[in-house]
Specification:
ubl conjugation pathway; extended; 3 domains; 3-stranded mixed beta sheet; Four Helix Bundle (Hemerythrin (Met), subunit A); repeat; about 375 residues; alpha+beta
Amino acid sequence: MAIHCNSICNYQTVRLLLSAWDPLVSARFDHLLMESYIDDNDLACWCPSNPPCGHAIRVGFRSDPYCEVECVCEIQFCFNCLSNVHSPCTCYIWRMWVKRCEVEGQNTGWIEANTKVCPGCGNAVIKAGGCNHMTCRCGQTFCWLCGGPTSKSHGLEGHSCNSFTKAELMGPTSQDFFRYKHYYVRYRCHNDSLEMETLLKQSLQNKKCPLPFSLCPHPTGRPTRDENWVLVGIQKLLLSRRFLTYTYPFAFYMFGDFLAGNDLPNKDIRQNLFEAQQQQLECCVEKLAMELERDFDQVTPGEVADMRLRVIGLSSTLDNYCRNMYECIEEELLPYLGQTAFIARYNSSGPDKATEISCVEGSSLINCMK
């Protein structure tokens, strides 16, 4: 610019001049311009994929930041905290759960393999010698093999534990650990199922039709367009399984004594209602999983119509269960966690999918209208 020049050189002019001078410098200018836009815009963020895909997500004008989106690279994440989608957990609850799992998760397996629970005080006991007659620091004696209480004077005489019996674990002093273990085991179990069902979806997507077209009859005899009802059912299974998975860390903190200001009235009643809904959802998820994990090559034409109706019916039921449970969490539980406790709105089709609206060298801007 010349001194005292009143003209304004906008970025379009800069790009034009740089393109004529050096295309590489022009590309670098575009990238820096994009970074500046993303960093200064509360409604835009970079996709947190690793390795980075180079895309940025922009949600609609005045959109709620507590939303879940899917980039064109198929990574799904929370727009507010940039972590994996985690509804119905709030961002704060999810961060606490991840942090605790990093500490406790590695210890859980070791404790399971190397300790026993004292039937008197509930503390974990490590075996230091070869004798199976254990004495806890609380004075309680028990059998290392089965964990049952024994007599102090007679050791293991008259104590039989060679047959399998189901024992109830006690321990008020270790209640926190065993409570965490209860929720963690179920969280991990459903998370593992989610990973395997994701692989099932990928294998089915490699086929033109999960079932042969001739096995998808229409009641009127005309060709049907819903031959992909299996894939639709798989998608609903994945969404419901993920929702169910994250209800366990939510319940761990919601009904525990960890959150500051968590003064939840009638906690036992609310927890019972929550767990009843959770159990309904869990049973329906497993029913749909059993239907979709069948060997479709062995399905006969006569079985397809009934199977299709069951899958569609279970998918609809799951959508209702998830929606009702979500409304219960949002209206009956979250208000007691404070004014900053928000979760992404429920979407029966999953996170909002982004669409590409513009592209520059090395990065692109993705639009996700709300």
